[in-house]
Amino acid sequence: MLKWLKKLAGGGVSTATPGSEPVSYRGFDIYPEPRQEGGQFRLQGRIVQHKDGEQREYLLIRSDLLPSAEQAAELMIGKAKRVIDENGERLFD
To answer: pTM of the full predicted structure?
Structure first.
């Protein structure tokens, strides 16, 4: 497959913090998963809630690009906390 087509299809995307421990916040788990793009890292991650034996998941992707995976992960955690504060369980509706 051509390199540009592979990128378009989602291939070649790497998470900078694979297997990292989630950050717990108000009954939710936040998984920062910065995505490398053109030498920078896009703010990306998941907000997960376990309730009644089910796992509910919300994918959070923002347009922010940062020079390091650590900065992107830190900013993602802050934005995820704000999303949780503003939406709570409505996040999964």
So the answer is: 0.78
